[in-house]
């Protein structure tokens, strides 16, 4: 099965009932699969007029309590940014899939990249926090899509599946379980106000039709959902909570693999560059080479870097000019070497071996 | 007070300026909703950004106050996911026809079953009165200090051309007719578009020789010509007075619609 | 029924003055405690709705309270009922 198809299957398995999208290479197969299968699964597929409308419709559908998602690539992702901020501000659970391609601008429509990793974290204006998952295989396109829906519901945040052309168009065997367990939002308690958070910082969810007359606004609002745009304390309270509910759950959300924790030279990867690292490690078994592979990059699990107490250097191959490497640099004292590659091709094992030799 | 059960009492008085027509249009819309016998738990108000788009915040139902221009796209998501809900969109001339123009024509084309009430005050009211796509040629605004030089959109005609099943236009003076039109739109399956021309005394009237609120409303009243009469005048070759516009029902039809509850 | 203006909501736009066929609303001249000049009522018992709502069991005319942008106009029950001598000018 193809990665994009596995993503669509994951969404269907997770009970996604609404897809709004606009075609863009290399993500289109997700929309096409949803168009074919969603109506038969009792859901709604709608081809919107652009990506601004796609994410808007997804947020609208999400407020009816439906699991909703859209899929796009760089140019469409850029168009979605204002409403992604709206989803963060209004705590709307929804999933956005970005099958990344070379940018900026129209760039390389048919080539892979990981150039939107900061955009998915900081792309909309203002302070907020989101969750981003990075699959490296067709199986993970399925698994992490399911997981993205659960995280979106649990934390009431827009959640991103940050894949790329390589994984989206890769074909591999997948195991699709008959059913998957899903975790939905906690319902809004009778005695709670619509935006009154519980101890974990996340308010219960009362989707439209619950009889709670919830006013949803992107303006700074109080616990009732009423605009309060001038009181500094109201804004501080709301925005701090929006950030904290995700950041304080970093350990809970984290998902990563550690290989050779005693190693001195450690590769840190996410997405398909991890496959080249795995190849290198298979080719030359060597306990002094370690690998930290992140399946969740935002909120950034800085504690995972400390799982390598003997690390002398971190090497970070990415399909961009060096983005997540900044986050790693921020959290460790050891030297961190960026191994950027752009243009659409993965690092070759030989390239990584050269880097390994040069830096250890 | 109209439809007291539908107002969020704890948020009144609203933020609108003295004599702003938006409050009147909320009254008419809620009167129509009451006439329809809709339930509050099944009725969703959606809006974009602007003074007009603040309306859902004063109504005691679930509501989405969204981003500038995108209300119709959000509403499409709500209605397609839950066709059993009654969806009403409040929007402004800028929200609908400038930044949201693309969503406007596509929502009409899809004919999604909802009611769209546009408070057309000829201006970007909330940002302080800049020229919008409906600012009449010659009118003064903060960005057209020498008089608007661009031709204006006719929103209702645009909705007709784009395919909405119900289209009407009235003004904030014609409260009874406007209420009836909104109710007729709500009864029509498919997208109902009602343009309500209204006064922004603060940012439009003041600069266009309409200094008092009643003067602005009187101006709307006296420039409104019933569609039938207008057609007769055109047929008879009677000149149409400067600044006149049609009011009444422009279309009621049954093109295929989406999101209609079966 | 008795016509009342909610002084806590009225913003003094005078649209009611424009629309009432009986000219019951008259432009006011004095500032109220909120600093707003609200209209004054001239023999409100002439209002169609004051006189006939009870008889017909529904809102009559009602144009003023529909156009009032600030939801400030309403009718309250008179208790005890005060009979009025009504002169309606046509
Ligand atoms: C993307 C974006 N651009 C600009 C604005 C600023 N803005 C807020 S309201 C508005 C104009 C609203 O005009 P209209 O829709 O006619 O509403 P009105 O206030 O006249 O009722 C603008 C330009 C914004 N909020 N978002
Ligand atoms: S600025 Fe104009 S449109 Fe906005 S509230 Fe004031 S009068 Fe109404
Ligand atoms: S209901 Fe009619 S008659 Fe009575 S006060 Fe209002 S406008 Fe005048
Ligand atoms: S229409 Fe309403 S707000 Fe305006 S003056 Fe009359 S009572 Fe006051
Ligand atoms: Mg406007």
Annotation keywords:
heterotrimer, B: 262 residues, alpha/beta, Rossmann fold, two-stranded antiparallel sheet, globular, C: alpha+beta, Alpha-Beta Plaits, binds iron/sulfur cluster
Protein topology:
The complex is a heterotrimer of chains A (360), B (262) and C (90).
Chain A: H1 3-13, E1 16-21, H2 28-37, E2 44-47, H3 51-62, E3 67-72, H4 74-90, E4 94-102, E5 108-112, H5 119-122, E6 131-133, H6 138-155, E7 158-164, H7 165-169, E8 215-217, H8 232-247, H9 250-253, E9 256-259, E10 265-270, H10 273-283, E11 289-294, E12 296-298, E13 313-318, H11 324-331, E14 336-340, H12 349-359
Parallel strand pairs in A: 1-2, 1-3, 3-4, 4-7, 6-7, 10-11, 10-13, 13-14
Antiparallel strand pairs in A: 4-5, 6-12, 9-11
Helix pairs in contact in A: 1-2, 1-6, 3-4, 10-12
Chain B: H1 22-36, E1 43-47, E2 62-65, H2 71-81, E3 86-92, H3 93-98, H4 101-110, E4 115-120, E5 123-124, E6 130-131, H5 155-162, E7 166-171, H6 175-187, E8 192-197, H7 213-223, E9 224-226, H8 227-236, E10 245-252
Chain C: E1 2-5, H1 15-19, E2 25-26, E3 40-41, H2 48-56, H3 63-67, E4 73-76
Antiparallel strand pairs in C: 1-4, 2-3
One iron/sulfur cluster binds next to loops of chain B.
């Amino acid at each position: 099965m193809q990665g994009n198809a596995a993503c669509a299957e994951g969404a269907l398995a997770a009970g996604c009932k609404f897809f709004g999208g606009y075609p863009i290479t290399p993500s289109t197969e997700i929309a096409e699969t949803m168009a074919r299968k969603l109506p038969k699964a009792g859901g709604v597929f709608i081809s919107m007029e652009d990506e601004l409308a796609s994410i808007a419709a997804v947020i609208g559908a999400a407020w009816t309590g439906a699991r909703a998602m859209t899929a796009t690539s760089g140019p469409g992702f850029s168009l979605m940014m204002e409403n992604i901020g709206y989803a963060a501000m209004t705590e709307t659970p929804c999933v956005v899939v970005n099958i990344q391609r070379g940018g900026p601008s129209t760039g390389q429509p048919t080539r892979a990249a990981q150039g939107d990793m900061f955009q998915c974290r900081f792309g909309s204006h203002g302070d907020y926090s989101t969750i981003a998952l990075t699959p490296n295989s067709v199986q993970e396109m399925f698994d992490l899509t399911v997981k993205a829906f659960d995280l979106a519901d649990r934390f009431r945040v827009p959640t991103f599946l940050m894949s790329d052309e390589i994984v989206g168009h890769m074909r591999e065997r997948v195991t699709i379980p008959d059913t998957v367990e899903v975790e939905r939002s906690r319902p809004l308690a009778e005695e709670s106000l619509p935006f009154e958070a519980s101890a974990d910082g996340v308010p219960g969810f009362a989707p439209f039709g619950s009889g709670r007359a919830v006013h949803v606004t992107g303006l700074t609002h109080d616990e009732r959902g009423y605009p309060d745009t001038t009181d500094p304390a109201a804004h501080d309270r709301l925005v701090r909570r929006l950030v904290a509910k995700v950041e304080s759950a970093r350990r809970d959300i984290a998902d990563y693999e550690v290989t050779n924790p005693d190693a001195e030279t450690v590769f840190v990867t996410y997405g398909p560059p991890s496959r080249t690292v795995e190849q290198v490690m298979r080719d030359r078994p060597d306990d002094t080479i370690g690998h930290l592979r992140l399946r969740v990059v935002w909120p950034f699990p800085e504690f995972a870097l400390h799982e390598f107490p003997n690390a002398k250097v971190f090497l970070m191959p990415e399909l961009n000019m060096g983005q997540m490497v900044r986050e790693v640099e921020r959290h460790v004292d050891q030297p961190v070497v960026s191994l950027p590659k752009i243009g659409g091709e993965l690092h070759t094992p030989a390239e990584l071996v050269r880097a390994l030799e040069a830096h250890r | 007070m109209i439809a007291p059960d539908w107002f969020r009492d704890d948020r009144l008085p609203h933020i609108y300026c003295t004599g702003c027509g938006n409050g009147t249009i909320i009254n008419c819309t809620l009167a129509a909703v009451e006439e329809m016998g809709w339930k509050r738990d099944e009725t969703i108000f959606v809006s974009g950004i602007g003074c007009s788009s603040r309306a859902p915040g004063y109504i005691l139902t679930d509501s989405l106050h969204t981003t500038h221009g995108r209300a119709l796209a959000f509403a499409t998501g709500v209605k397609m996911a839950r066709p059993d809900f009654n969806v009403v969109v409040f929007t402004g001339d800028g929200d609908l026809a400038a930044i949201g123009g693309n969503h406007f024509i596509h929502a009409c084309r899809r004919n999604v079953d909802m009611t769209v009430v546009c408070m057309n005050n000829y201006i970007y009211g909330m940002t302080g009165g800049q020229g919008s796509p409906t600012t009449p040629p010659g009118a003064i605004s903060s960005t057209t200090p020498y008089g608007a030089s661009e031709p204006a959109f006719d929103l209702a005609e645009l909705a007709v051309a784009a395919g909405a099943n119900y289209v009407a236009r009235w003004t904030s003076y014609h409260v009874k007719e406007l209420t009836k039109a909104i109710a007729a739109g709500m009864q029509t399956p498919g997208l109902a578009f009602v343009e309500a021309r209204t006064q922004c005394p603060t940012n439009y009237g003041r600069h266009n020789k309409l200094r008092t609120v009643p003067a602005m409303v009187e101006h709307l009243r006296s420039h409104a010509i019933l569609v039938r009469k207008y057609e007769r005048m055109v047929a008879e070759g009677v000149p149409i007075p400067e600044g006149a516009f049609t009011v009444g029902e422009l279309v009621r039809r049954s093109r295929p619609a989406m999101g209609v509850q079966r | 029924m008795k016509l009342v203006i909610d002084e806590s909501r009225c913003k003094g736009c005078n649209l009611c003055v424009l629309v009432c066929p009986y000219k019951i609303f008259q432009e006011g001249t004095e500032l109220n405690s909120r600093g707003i000049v609200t209209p004054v009522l001239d023999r409100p018992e002439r209002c169609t709705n004051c006189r006939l709502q009870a008889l017909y069991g529904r809102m009559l005319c009602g144009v003023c309270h529909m156009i009032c942008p600030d939801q400030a106009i309403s009718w309250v029950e008179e208790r005890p009922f005060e009979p009025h001598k009504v002169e309606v000018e046509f």
